[in-house]
Amino acid sequence: MSGKQRIEDxxxxxxxxxxxxxxxxxxxxxWIKEGGHWFxxxxxxxxGGVEMEDCQEVSRRLDDILDREDPITHAYSxxxxxxxxxxxxxxxxxxxxxxxEKIRITTFAPVAGSKEHIGELxxxxxxxxxxxxxxxxxxxxxxxxxxxxLHFSF
Length: 154
Fold this sequence. Notes:
Elements: H1 3-21, E1 25-34, E2 37-45, H2 52-69, E3 77-81, H3 92-97, E4 102-111, E5 114-124, E6 128-133, E7 136-141, E8 145-150
Parallel strand pairs: 2-3
Antiparallel strand pairs: 1-2, 4-5, 4-8, 5-6, 6-7
Helix pairs in contact: 1-2
């Protein structure tokens, strides 16, 4: 397990009871370096949308745990926010909840000639994710999937 995965897993474990108590949903935890700076991003959601107070409360409680446990030895910024309109789909619950919605799947290597696949979510199985688009259905093998996000066209 990489250091990135270990940090994300530990923060997920600490955050899950917080969001459950606050009647929120933990969407994702991301440990990432951008522009020379490290960020610990926690994405939360709830029916009707997340409010600033929700983000502040999760941040305050999680910050207390991070100070006590001290899992990260260098400077970083903690950010707690909603997942936005391009929300990632990760859990089985996400795939059930957003069935019929338009999604964007990116793959590690080209599948059927492309690394990006956009279509209506039909289903996710142990083999792959099936989407419908351009009058056809296609299934992207799970072992090829890099990310899955909701997709909105403007």
